[in-house]
Design brief:
The chain is α+β, with helices and mostly antiparallel strands. The chain contains 22 helices and 15 strands. Strands 2-1-5-4-3 form a five-stranded antiparallel beta sheet, with helices on both faces. The chain has a five-stranded antiparallel beta sheet with strand order 7-6-10-9-8, with helices on both faces. Strands 12-11-15-14-13 form a five-stranded antiparallel beta sheet, with helices on both faces. Strand 1 (about 75-80) and strand 2 form a beta hairpin. Helix 15 packs antiparallel against helix 17 (about 525-545) and helix 19 (about 560-570) packs across helix 22 (about 610-620). The longest helix is centred in the last third of the chain and has 56 residues, at about 460-515. The N and C termini lie far apart (about 140 Å).
Amino acid sequence: MEEDVLRRRAEQIISEQLEGIHELHAEDIRNLIHELQVHQVELEMQNDELRKAHLELEASRVKYYELYDFAPVGYFTLSENGIILEVNLAGAELLGVGRRYVIGSGFSRFLAPESQDRFYYYRTQARETGLKQDCEIKIIRKGGINFYAQLQMFVRVADENETAHFHVTATDISKRKHAEDELRKSHEFLEQRVEERTASLRESEAKYRELVQNANSIIYYRDPQGHITFFNEYAQSFFGYDEAEILGKHVVGTIVPENDERGRNLALLIENISRNPDRYASNINENMRRNGERVWVSWTNTAIRDEHGDVEGILCVGNDITALRKARKALTLSEERYRILADNVSDIIWTVDLGLHFTYISPSVERILGYTRKEITTHVVDRILPPESRKSALELAEKFKKFIHHTDDKERFRDPKTVELRMIRKDGTLIWTETTLTFVGGTENNADTILGVTRDTTDRVLARQSLEQSKMELESESRHLAEANTTLKVLMNRIKEDKMQFEENVLSNIRELVIPFIEKLKVISSKSERDACIQVLEANLHNIASPFLRNMSLKHYHLTPKELQVANLVKEGKTTKEIAELLNASARSVEFHRDNIRKKLNIKHKKKNLRSNLLAMSAHDPTTLF
């Protein structure tokens, strides 16, 4: 329909334009036709472009609606009075109702009572300022389930009458709110822990400060530029400065002089420590008290760094070694005098360069190594050092090479180094030597020559090895003697125990086999009975000295005193009747005791004679009775 209307309007315009065409020439007409054809083609092309733009616009509109409906957040369009005009699927799902039931409803009906005023306030702000507003509110989902939502709203004036529409996005932030609550609880817990830890740290700091202040060492702290910021009480007492006098002052010029007694630049040393504190973890240098007295202190330096690893300050802990250094220096001077005297007499004095090539050697080398000075100076050290000694010498030389390039370590070269090496004589024999090494010569700052004094210590080493061997043998003999002594002690203890057992057995047998019969003799009037009792008494005394009763007592086989008397009389060949008369007991009682003895000797119900068994026991070794 629209195409027909457009066609009629086009034909009318053309007819109007062609009213004067009969006045045109043929060439003008042809040109006009050509222009019309070109214009027609242009119109067709524009029509195609419009059709294509229309299709793209439709696709874009569909895509927009898809994005709107399937967006992960809720979109709402509200009227100025808060009525829901439009809502996407996510928004309806947040409210828990279908989209058709949401549109036309007031947005406030879905808000919790405590969020009503808050929503109204931010909606008013958006209307008055025209700026986007953010707020958190509580929404009531269908079924009475509450959740927190993050709202973002802005206002758009739709027409000239200033009817406002509010565009609102809503995002469920329940999980975030829950996480925030957990985070708040964790934060409160951490705050509590921090407070507890802070209190503990304050207590530790107080203890540490008390320890530092009362330490019997110099402790001070300085910044990287060398200014003192802490000075413990011992340091104040040692150097003679009060805390108020020393804090903020530079170490150089107060406790460190510009140069030490040998001219070493100590200001440069302090600067080097500040630049590279790890390299100077410990050092010894001369210091100065307030009264000008020079002292020597051994320092331990610890760099305190910030979170970026930069040095914030240096903690210095020192101990006074002035007396020790003086004593060591005096001892070194004394040793040097006597060593030079001794070395010039018999030891080899030599010098080598850092490549271990001889540059000088004393004549005593021929006596010790068999080489002339000319021969030894034409050879490298490899000729006179076996592999293990060569390795030690090269390692020591490498250490010297590293040290000579450091001005501050120059003092280390002056102290002699002693090493024990094996050497090869010209005839091929091996000897032990003790070599003392010292740096001499060289330039002003570097030493490039090693002075050595070598002494033949073969006899001493062999004597030491022999002494160590003798010591090992003596220790072995001592162990053997200790073992023998232990064995002897065990044997003596056994003899003592046997003696005590013997005495106990004899006393027990006398109490049970002699004393009763002596008591009986006192009351017997009949001569025949007295003779019989004396006969038994004599037999018992004889038996006490025999292996039988000497080793047999009450504890053996658990015999009672009466059973022991009966057993002894049975062994002597007495009949039951004779035993009864001697013991003043009935025959039946004696038989009872005889039966118990057989039972305790484990021969009851066996075809063994009691007297024969007792005689056999007395003939056996005593140990068989146990």
